[in-house]
Amino acid sequence: MTITGTERNPVITVRGQHLGTRPLPNPAYHPLGHPPVCPPNPTKPASAYGFDYGTKLFIADSTQQPNWSGGRYRPKLGELDCVGIIVVSFTQTKVVLRLDAAYRAPLENRPDRSYHLMENDVFAVDVNSARSSGQVHYR
User: Fold this and answer.
1) Residue 123: how many CB atoms within 10 A of its CB?
2) Which of 10, 23, 107, 124 is deepest in the core (most CB within 10 A)?
3) How many domains are contained in the chain?
4) Strand pairing of 94-99 and 57-61?
5) Could you tell me how far CA 117 lies from the centroid of its own chain?
6) CB 24 within 8 Å of CB 13
7) What pTM did the predictor assign?
8) 136 close to 8: Cβ distance less than 8 angstroms
9) Range of 32's domain?
């Protein structure tokens, strides 16, 4: 698993065997604008936002406080991630993901830069229940 790009626009690549098929969004709508959890951002088109995928496809950062995740939806726990995932490509052996416009927007507004994949953060990516973890090192 690698993270390339920049802190503002990371690209997450997971390689493996039998990663399954691309899961359907769960819930079926973009998380941004889902009241009262995720505030709307009318300056971006809907295509700039990804989806949550239940627990089938998500990234979680365990270094930042509070811990955060993108792409995960767990209604029994009251969790809907405002940061959605954009699937760039998905095959049985390689999955490439980006984080949506909701991930990039807060950087200018949050001097502490929380809710971002920062250099050396510990993170995990789940793809159809296959977990891969590592430490962020931008290349």
Assistant:
1) 24
2) 10
3) 1
4) unpaired
5) 10
6) no
7) 0.89
8) no
9) 2-38+46-135
